Amino acid sequence: MKRKHNSGFILPLTLSIIGLSIALVTYMANNGRVFAPAAKTMIEREKTRMLARSGIEIAMSQLAIPDKKTAQKADAKDKKESKNDKEEKQETIFSFVLPRLNTWQRFKLVTAVDGLQGEIGICLMSEEGKLNLNELFDPATGNLIESLKKNPAAEKCMQELFDRIDKASGGKDLYKTFIAFLKNRKSRLDDVTELLMIKEFEIFKERIFFDPPEEGASKEGKKQAYLTDLFTIWSGKKTLQPWLLSPAMCDVLKVVPGKNGSLEEKRKIITEVLKTLPDSLSWPEGWNKYLKLWYEKDFSTLPKGIDVFLDTKFEPSVFSVLCYGKIGKTTQKIFAILERVKAPSEKDKEKVNVTIKKLYWL
User: 82 pLDDT band (50/70/90 cuts)?
Assistant: First the structure.
């Protein structure tokens, strides 16, 4: 009986299994090589987001310090209770925030103390140092609100302010196109970024949120006008707080806060101002006596009619903060609108609560 001989199949099968195994191992190795740095980047990104969010908490704690009037009363009470004790200078929202406004505050983190190596940066800004479009303009007509429209000087001043904004930002006819946009819209703005729908405002597409310059960096040749640094909808006021003008508004008014000096130099000016600063100012006398020390500019150099748009009291409540968290080469930024709210109860009337009104992840 003859046996039937089949051609060999074990060797090809073995080679196929080996080849498949090599392909799988190579695929897994390549994926693993890509996943390891990707996973590290994702973890660092989450950590930097947490650090950026922590920057908001730092800003909130700084804004929770008392205002000028409350602090003065507290100081007077402390002096009566302990005349022999060494007098301690109490920080106020005026003395602490003003010299640090619109500049970076950086906090280094070290593993031994904080559990990781990184950095948190915050830049405090005031929404009351910008033009509030919702409060200044009537959405039904697109023109200035009735109380301002009755004042010819106010309307001319607003036109001049926008002409200066054109020059500072490189724009053209921003006032005219904004009025036309508002007339067509017939409702208040929900966010300043809605202005980017206007063709003439597209120049701000790459300059939406303020980017604080590094200390000692030259501003020459660089456009400093950022969209949300010029305009706001959050302040709840039709006036500008003259002590807290945004960098863009400073450029528009051609003034430089604190002689553009260091923190210590700015604090010296503020200490001098606080010696006689009243609760309310009048224009132009108040500017030439107090704000001239801060800006080194006489009131006569400002646009005519600007007094209508300047707040006479220092009672700021709405601020914004730009924060970043950084670990290695990974950085995350966040922009937040913050509001100072005084405690409603009589018992805690000296306390200030700070709430978050809106967040923007950048």
Answer: very low
Token pair, residue 147, equals: 């109380």
Mean pLDDT of 151-162: 92
Q: Which pair of tokens denotes residue 115? A: 């559990």
Instruction: Kindly report the pTM of this predicted structure.
Output: 0.82
Q: How far apart are CA 362 and CA 360, in angstroms?
A: 6
Q: How far apart are CA 42 and CA 65, in angstroms?
A: 36
Residue among 57, 64, 61 nearest 350 (CA): 64
- Residue (of 311, 312, 244) closest to 278 by Cα position: 312
- What residues contact residue 198 under an 8 Å CB cut-off, 6+ apart? 177, 178, 181
- Report d(CA 339, CA 82) in Å as an integer: 34
What is the chain's Cα-based Rg? 29
pLDDT at 89 over 70: no
Question: For residue 348, what are the contacts with CB-CB under 8 A and spacing of at least 6?
Answer: none
Residue 225 CB neighbours (<10 A): 24
Confidence at residue 115, expressed as pLDDT on a 0 to 100 scale: 83
Distance between CA atoms of 154 and 200, rounded to whole angstroms? Answer: 24
- Give, as one character, the DSSP assignment of residue 310: B
Q: Any idea what DSSP says for residue 151?
A: -
Q: What pLDDT shows up at residue 213?
A: 83
- 131-132 vs 118-126, strand pairing mode: unpaired
Question: What does the block give as tokens for 183?
Answer: 């007339």
210, amino acid identity: F
Q: What pairing do the DSSP bridges indicate for beta strands 352-361 and 131-132?
A: unpaired
Residue 4 has pLDDT above 80, yes or no: no
**Residue 1 confidence (pLDDT) above 70:** no
Q: Which amino acid is at 284?
A: P
